[in-house]
Amino acid sequence: MSERQRLILSAAVRVIARDGVRGLRMEDLAAEAGVSTALIYYHFKNRAGLLHRTLEYVSERAGRYTDEAIAPGTDPRTHVELLLLHELQDTPAIRENSTAWGELRASATFDPVLREPVRTATAEWVGDISGLIDQAMIEGQVAPHVSPEGAAERLTSLVEGLSERWLSGTLMLDRAQSLLRDAIALELDRAPRR
Amino acid sequence: MSERQRLILSAAVRVIARDGVRGLRMEDLAAEAGVSTALIYYHFKNRAGLLHRTLEYVSERAGRYTDEAIAPGTDPRTHVELLLLHELQDTPAIRENSTAWGELRASATFDPVLREPVRTATAEWVGDISGLIDQAMIEGQVAPHVSPEGAAERLTSLVEGLSERWLSGTLMLDRAQSLLRDAIALELDRAPRR
DNA sequence: CTCGGCTGACCAAACTTTCAGTCAATATCG
DNA sequence: CGATATTGACTGAAAGTTTGGTCAGCCGAG
């Protein structure tokens, strides 16, 4: 992928985070990226193609910044917590990525082309968390009888639900974080900690 | 609200569930409702006004069909379970309402006008569940130390997360249901049942 | 020179919104 | 009671606006 494409895609994420997928106008995007509208068509064929590529870009980028945020050697249990809580952080980058991700996921309900990448990205995320819970169990940081798969699916779904409430102004961020922390404890300890 | 307005609003829910908020065109809506486009403007001022009223209509209707679905005299614990599971049911009415609700909630992230009705409707739902958990606790159907508020917020958020995954084709319905059932047990019993 | 990257200008189609005006029902008046 | 205004609901048609998408051609690096 060329530098120019990356430029356009990151601009797309910004525009989507600001106006939603519904509000993404090719002209707005061109302005945000500082290029002509025609160039977008040159690189991405059409609006649908652009959205498709943007979705891939968002999930790829999410995976990257997620990894970067966590010090190597962190124990798996803490790792799970950091990974999940990470989505509920009020920095421009995360807010932007979360908003765009939520929008693209929602669009998948109506656009079959987006379904498969959404499914793949979700599966990957759930798989990561599930794997970490597995490890944490081996190290005795998680109660036995916990189903890593189930817990991972519930916790990531919960994060998405909380995130959307936060981003739509329905829920305060600190409340969302505290709810998530309790949920993690509930899932992994089978009783709230402290 | 006149019968005619109700007719248009229910058509709007159908169109939104089918094409999304972005895909709602005034002309399509007019066709779906069997009226002229001008009539929609006569009753709702403009597209934004229509969306706003549709949101109110969806939440009102959700509350109504939810009540109808549950036999009076049901014990509170079962009531909670039915209420939550109810959103994960593949009937046209529920799918329609859930899809429209998800769309409108997502739109609230970008449209301040929609925020307040979304917040109100959510608070009402959380309040209902929380109240029922309270009652269930009094009747000994829920473990002590459970925070009804917290559990209600987490469970409803989880339902929204699971629902969106289901509707976007990311998650099979029966899996979503089973995940939710386990979450309820985890939250209310502080240990999975059976 | 030439070729991929890139653009300004442009357009047809898609959409929203407006408007003049019809019609049935209801109120008003002589 | 009959004639006449008034009103609210509603529509067809078209104006007005926005948007996705195309295209002929410019430009700079090799």
Task: Tell me the layout of helices and strands.
2 copies of one chain form a homodimer.
Chain A: H1 3-19, H2 26-33, H3 37-44, H4 47-68, H5 76-86, H6 92-108, H7 112-138, H8 148-167, H9 173-189
Chain A binds a DNA duplex (30 and 30 nucleotides) through helix 3.
The gist of it:
The structure is a homodimer of 194-residue chains. The first copy, chain A, is mainly α. Helices cover 76% and strands 0% of the residues of chain A.
CATH topology of the domain at 55-189 in chain A: Tetracycline Repressor, domain 2
Shape of chain A: elongated
Order of helices and strands of chain A: HHHHHHHHH
| CATH-derived architecture of the domain at 55-189 in chain A | Orthogonal Bundle
CATH superfamily of the domain at 55-189 in chain A: Tetracycline Repressor, domain 2
What percent of residues of chain A are in strands? under 5%
Determine the mean pLDDT of chain A. 92
For this entry, what is the oligomeric state of its chains?
homodimer
The radius of gyration of chain A is: 18 Å
Q: What is the CATH class designation of the domain at 55-189 in chain A?
A: Mainly Alpha
Helix count of chain A, per DSSP? 9
Number-wise, the strands of chain A total: 0
Verbal overview:
The structure is a homodimer of 194-residue chains. Chain A contains 9 helices and no strands. In chain A, 76% of the residues lie in helices and 0% in strands. By secondary structure, chain A is mostly helical. Chain A has a domain at 55-189: Tetracycline Repressor, domain 2, CATH 1.10.357.10. The mean pLDDT of chain A is 92. At the A-B interface, helix 6, helix 7, helix 8 and helix 9 of A face helix 6, helix 7, helix 8 and helix 9 of B. Chain A binds a DNA duplex (30 and 30 nucleotides) through residues 2, 4, 25-27, 35-39, 41-43, 46-47. Chains A, B: This is TetR/AcrR family transcriptional regulator. Chains A, B: InterPro entries: BetI_C, Homeodomain-like_sf, HTH-type_TetR-like_transc_reg, HTH_TetR, Tet_transcr_reg_TetR-rel_C_sf. Chains A, B: Residues 2-62 form the HTH tetR-type domain. Chains A, B: It holds the Pfam family TetR_C_6.
